[in-house]
Design brief:
The chain is of the alpha/beta class. The protein is built from 16 helices and 20 strands. It has a 7-stranded mixed sheet with strand order 9-8-7-10-11-13-12. A 7-stranded mixed sheet has the order 16-15-14-17-18-20-19. The longest helix has 22 residues. The termini are far apart.
């Protein structure tokens, strides 16, 4: 039978279409989208459906998910997931909620009960979801309102109702921008600071700020519009869920307290530190709390203190003010301005010296200069009653104005050379633009809160600087100490040990990033990778991502473990891995 030219053309076109389709599906350059999650959808997979890998044996029951994971030819691990138990398990933070350890404390005078007390071993249970949990309100709308069901804590609404911290309006919690010291709103307060000291140029010479006792982080949230990134922190205390509110809003924040241990930041890090009625007794224990602020404040940096002792003269406030005058003089801080605005709220702004000459001229060396070389990795380091030494070199010319400092190296830096930083910046710029943004199955429009688990010099964060997100740069304590470089660049971060739980609430980050960390023997010889993945699952929101660059051996392990958690997973170029968390949780035990 004769075949027409038209039939031949159709046959050839069909064959070509099939070939192209096959190429796209198998190519390393293909982007594999994950199934979309509706903000009100709940992801509950069929418990009888197998996790997709031929070496995984899945056994399901009503209370847990079990999986036998074959890590290699000789090692087989059984995975079993259970929900964390207890009335507060929805917001469980293992190292801050270890009530057995807290009960055994001999003292709580210095906020010991608000510090870290990690259980051993680190728990592997899964955090249940709040009832009616939804995907968060997108940024920037989230700065002003969040779903009540995601953080269903009404106590702060009632406790601070006269101060406009937060209001409950139907299915939303709304943040009007008020605060204890923000009587006319946080915008007016920030303008008040600008008028009080015009040399403070937000987003220029002031880029990295620390807000002590931050409340719901409205101060830090307002500064985002001025190209300032603020590390807002407060303890987990009676101000219920304040840091959880901040992170749900998409504002950088962490749980911490000035108690008996150093803050997990490097020395000489912040351009400005702020305290508005933060309830810290700065002169306590010989002035150790203020000496800790002095440690993390860069030379020439400012401390803004807005509290009643500044502008009231009753006996109690006068006594606190006089103690503060004596203490700040002893550490050579100078008052650059002290003023009161039209609302009746006042503040004082101090400046840290840029030279040690004042220290040497003091009539008494009390407090003394720290005589030993400080370990920058301030991890479980007791507070010291001494003045941190200033860095060497011309500190008056550093840091450079933002954004130039992002690609600059501090003169005489011992942490990184200019060429090393340049190459690291170029490397991460290429990986982020060519791989992460183009070819991985990540919907970046939904990503606001990001954490780099092994940040190095902050190159990953620097490559994302122009996107509407922020990055918490974590430098593991068993890795080279590069966190000071991160801050020098105008970025923020903390020290951490990934064999322990992080000081954050569950469901607070949209994306976690790891580069050659999860398979590193420095980590895996000290704790199980399953424990670390359970912590990742605790931190990441449903619908959020884990992005990994690592060896295929590590990637396969992650694929097994996350498969047992019903995460969707994709591998790219045998080097990059993306996992996306769903709404699945093990079933609650029957009563």
């Amino acid at each position: 039978m004769a075949i027409s030219v038209q039939h031949v053309v159709v046959l050839l076109l069909s064959t070509l279409l099939i070939a192209i389709t096959f190429f796209l599906l198998t190519s390393d350059n293909a982007t594999f989208p994950f199934p979309s999650l509706s903000p009100t959808d709940y992801y509950t997979p069929n418990p009888k459906s197998p996790v997709p890998h031929q070496n995984v044996d899945v056994i399901s029951d009503q209370t847990s998910q079990k999986m036998k994971m074959k890590l290699n030819a000789s090692q087989e691990v059984e995975m079993k997931w259970d929900l964390c138990k207890g009335a507060e398990s929805v917001d469980y933070i293992p190292c801050l909620d270890n009530y057995a350890a807290i009960k055994q404390l001999k003292s709580r005078r210095h906020m010991e009960h608000r510090e870290r007390h990690c259980p051993e071993p680190s728990p592997k249970c899964l955090i249940p979801l709040p009832d009616n949990y939804k995907q968060p309100v997108p940024w920037p709308k989230s700065r002003d309102m969040i779903w009540y069901d995601n953080v269903p804590h009404p106590k702060l609404v009632e406790y601070k109702k006269e101060q406009n911290w937060v209001k409950n309006e139907g299915e939303f919690l709304v943040f009007p921008g008020g605060g204890t010291q923000f009587k006319f709103g946080v915008t007016h307060y920030v303008e008040f600071i600008e008028k009080a000291l015009p040399s403070i140029k937000w987003g220029k010479n002031i880029r990295v700020v620390l807000d002590v006792g931050c409340g719901v982080a409205s101060f830090g949230g307002s500064l985002l519009d001025k190209d300032v990134i603020t590390m807002s922190f407060a303890p987990k205390d009676e101000h219920e869920a304040q840091i959880q509110f901040a992170l749900e809003r998409g504002i950088p924040a962490t749980l911490s307290v000035i108690g008996t241990q150093q803050l997990t930041f490097p020395s000489n890090a912040f351009d400005l530190i702020h305290c508005a009625r933060c309830r810290v007794h700065w002169d306590a224990d010989g002035g150790k709390p203020l000496l800790e602020l002095n440690r993390v404040l860069r030379p020439g940096g400012f401390f803004i203190w807005s509290a009643t002792p500044v502008y009231r003269d009753n006996d109690r406030d006068s006594r606190i003010w006089n103690a503060m005058v004596s203490l700040t003089k002893s550490i050579c801080w100078k008052v650059v301005t002290k003023t009161v605005d039209s609302s009746g709220i006042g503040l004082v702004i101090y400046q840290k010296p840029t030279s040690e000459s004042c220290y040497n001229k003091r009539s008494t060396q009390d407090p003394p200069l720290c005589d030993k070389k400080e370990a920058n990795a301030s991890w479980y380091v007791p507070l010291a009653k001494c003045i941190s030494k200033l860095p060497s070199g011309n500190v008056q010319s550093w840091p450079e104005l933002w954004p130039k400092r992002l690609v600059s190296v501090k003169p005489q830096s011992i942490s990184v050379e200019a060429e090393t930083l340049k190459k690291d910046t170029e490397k991460w710029s290429a990986i982020v633009s060519d791989v992460y943004l183009e070819h991985l199955a990540v919907n970046w429009s939904t990503v606001r809160n990001v954490m780099d688990m092994n940040a190095g010099f902050g190159g990953f964060a620097a490559a994302l600087i122009n996107r509407p997100l922020w990055v918490m740069n974590v430098v593991p304590v068993d890795k080279p100490d590069t966190l000071s470089v991160v801050y020098d660049r105008g970025l923020i971060g903390v020290y951490h040990d990934w064999c322990e739980s992080l000081n954050t609430y569950p469901r607070t980050y949209d994306l976690l990033h790891s580069s050659f960390l999860l398979g590193d023997t420095d980590l895996t010889q000290r704790c199980e990778i399953v424990q670390v993945v359970a912590e990742i699952d605790r931190i990441v929101r449903p619908g959020g991502y884990l992005v990994v660059q690592d060896t295929m051996e590590t990637i396969k392990k992650l694929e097994y473990i996350l498969g047992s958690l019903h995460w969707s997973t994709k591998i790219y170029q045998d080097r990059f891995f993306v996992g996306r968390k769903g709404f699945w949780r093990p079933a609650k035990p029957e009563l």
